């Protein structure tokens, strides 16, 4: 697995776990660790979003290749 693939996967898992905690317990792990609206919190959220976009792009590429 390429490094960028692994990094994107880890970021998406972190985001998923955080949203699961927010939904189930109203507990935001990222803001608890890094502070509410801090620069680091915004950076983590941004990286998680980029990881999700990358994973979605990879999914669409695989889907298009398998249907061709």
Description:
The chain is mainly alpha-helical. It has one domain (3-63). Helix content is 85%, strand content 0%. It contains 3 helices and no strands. It has helices at 3-25, 29-34, 39-67. Helix 1 crosses helix 3. The two termini are 24 Å apart. The model has no long low-confidence stretch (mean pLDDT 93).
Question: What would the keywords be for this entry?
Answer:
mainly alpha; 68 residues
Integer count of domains: 1
Percent in helix: over 70%
| Coarse shape | elongated
Q: Kindly name the structural category.
A: mainly alpha
Distance between the termini: 24 Å
Q: List the quaternary state of the chains.
A: single chain
Average predicted confidence as pLDDT: 93
DSSP helix count?
A: 3
Which percent band covers the strand fraction?
Answer: under 5%
SSE layout and pairing:
Elements (H helix, E strand, L loop, with lengths): L2 H23 L3 H6 L4 H29 L1
Provide a short characterization of the protein structure.
The chain is mainly α and 68 residues long. The chain is built from three helices and no strands.
């Amino acid at each position: 697995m390429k490094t960028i693939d692994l990094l994107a996967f880890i970021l998406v898992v972190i985001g998923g776990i955080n949203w699961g905690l927010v939904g189930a317990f109203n507990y935001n792990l990222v803001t608890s660790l890094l502070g509410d609206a801090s620069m680091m919190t915004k950076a983590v959220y941004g990286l998680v979003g980029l990881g999700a976009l990358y994973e979605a792009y990879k999914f669409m590429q695989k889907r298009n290749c398998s249907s061709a």
